[in-house]
Write a structure and sequence with these properties.
The structure is a homodimer. With about 325 residues, chain A is of the alpha/beta class. The first copy, chain A, folds into three domains: about 5-45, lambda repressor-like DNA-binding domains (434 Repressor (Amino-terminal Domain), Orthogonal Bundle), CATH 1.10.260; about 60-155 and about 285-315, Response regulator (Rossmann fold); about 155-285, Rossmann fold (3-Layer(aba) Sandwich), CATH 3.40.50.2300. Helix content of chain A is about 45%, strand content about 15%. Chain A has helices spanning about 5-10, 15-25, 30-45, 50-55, 75-85, 100-115, 130, 155-170, 185-200, 215-230, 240-255, 270-275, 285-300, and strands spanning about 60-65, 90-95, 120, 140, 150-155, 175-180, 210, 235-240, 265-270, 280-285, 310-315, 315-320. In chain A, α5 (about 75-85) links the parallel β1 and β2 (about 90-95). In chain A, α8 packs parallel to α9 and α10 (about 215-230) crosses α11. The radius of gyration of chain A is 26 Å and the shape is elongated. Chain A binds a DNA duplex (30 and 30 nucleotides) through α2 and α4.
Chain lengths: ~325, ~325
Amino acid sequence: MASIRDVAKYASVSVATVSRVLNDKGYVGAETRKKVEAAIAELNYRPNEVARSLFKKQSKTIGLILPDIMNPFFPELARAIEDTASKLGYTVILCNSDEDEEKAQRYIDVLLQKYVDGIIISSNTILEKTIRELNIPVVCIDREISKDIPTIVVDNKKGARMATRFLKEKGRRKIAHIRGPIDIVNANERCEGYREVVSGEQWFNESYIVNGNYRMETATEVVLELLRQHPEIDGIFAANDTMAIGAMKAAYQHGLKVPEEISIIGFDGIALGKASIPELTTIEQPLYKLGQTAAKVLIKLIKGQDIEKTFYQFDVQLVERDST
Amino acid sequence: MASIRDVAKYASVSVATVSRVLNDKGYVGAETRKKVEAAIAELNYRPNEVARSLFKKQSKTIGLILPDIMNPFFPELARAIEDTASKLGYTVILCNSDEDEEKAQRYIDVLLQKYVDGIIISSNTILEKTIRELNIPVVCIDREISKDIPTIVVDNKKGARMATRFLKEKGRRKIAHIRGPIDIVNANERCEGYREVVSGEQWFNESYIVNGNYRMETATEVVLELLRQHPEIDGIFAANDTMAIGAMKAAYQHGLKVPEEISIIGFDGIALGKASIPELTTIEQPLYKLGQTAAKVLIKLIKGQDIEKTFYQFDVQLVERDST
DNA sequence: TAATTATCGGTAACCGGTTACAGATAGTTT
DNA sequence: AAACTATCTGTAACCGGTTACCGATAATTA
């Protein structure tokens, strides 16, 4: 590959001049510029990004740390982030942390060594202190760590209220909730939203809230048990779509028809919901928008620009399909 | 961040010595080594990967170019590749090409500028010549471009035969096939496998093969039309799971029960198949294994090691669930 | 004891960009 | 004509690693 010195030699100018036309910086005469451009074209020269990174101490690369790209919730976020970053001239390194703090920490170390300009992370295990010590911009997505770190989320509580109220409006009398992991903020918020709506009801009882872990199989198990213990249940609000599908399976196994005998609503709006039969009613997050915003905000921070706020909360939308 | 010169100064040795203990190369006295290690620990020194890359002309980074990470087929591959690369000390840059050759080419340019050590690509638009000109190792996954480029795929034709025969064994008499895009090799191979099994049947007729594009909605449309024209059809082999789900939806819309009145089998073995109701019978690819192999082979090539073969074809497995 | 070899450590150039600084030329002002 | 300014270009140091090469010391051999 041709280097900047080759180009300089070919155009009979100095490397400084070539660098100037490359970066459109400082004075360059029209004639000289033309010569240099011709040389660049002729030699098919592309500046070496690594050398540039070394001097500039930045790499036009961002790190993306997700729990697991195989979790169907994340691909759309990842796609939006990659699209946006790419449009703005950045490249993204993908990391799967498996919700494991140590693993996340190792990834962070590697990313720092590679001079990434910033990190987008979805994690509930990482500590605020750790992030603050990085000295590069970080934005959190889907999971909130601290009000001081820029965060992109949806209004989980409101969404949960919408979901629960919707089941009531559909005439459901006994509505259960399959919640997400206790250490994940959004799971608690969704549970809280559900509570706000049902806590006044005389039928409500703590055993209507069962623990899930955002995974399908577990949801099927716990819902099966729930239905055995509470045959009166005719509505389920699952804290995510994956568990909602699991709940649908449990309902079928228990001999209940969806939506005739029991209504099920999810949360997230992942593609999976459109693949189930019947298609899943859900509280849809603007996933692409979230990812896009995360990338935009991060890159603004990288460039040292101001951001309007540190907490971006988007609205969710009820998408009625066939499971309610 | 501390540099190697800081460490050298702190340990009262030269930078060369520090580099030697860092890389375990050349002679270093036991005493000296200890001093240096202490200094490294004390200053919390981490070598700058960018500087190293510049000199070594390699970055411990690989590029992964996929059509679209939102396509549920790819996350598992991506995960396997990332896991494996990470274990071997490599980092992966994610790129979504949208099957667009120009976009892929732009990504390749960027990756080259960043000195990636190799590329894993899934594409049918990119040309062999383009790849050969890169001068860095490339391996293809899922899609075959040329016998000369290391490729990781499954035995599509065999899988297709298995699927079709399985439907016959289940007593299905009129079996249709929803094929994938004509410009994708694996779609053609799967179609070929189907053909081999049914072409001898007297009922077989070209109109039993309909064109899909690996997407659900389209599959639903074409299958609906197919069922209208051929009410005798009692079995469908879809070239991928996503279309199989689409076919199931069409069957329901057409008033057919799955699997009682019509059997449907897919191909790929993506997680989606386990989320549908009824769960999808499919020809499962060892996706994780494929990704893992791609990463291993690529890294071997990067290190200049020999690889056993240039064409890795894995076996598929029939996973019987509830749609047949 | 002298010569040879193994071990150890330092100096400086290099990877391929960027940029501070200085020097040269041309045009303008007094 | 002298002084000054605006425009243009080049030299060399720097980013933070790696490594070729050289010199010094200690251990071994003749």
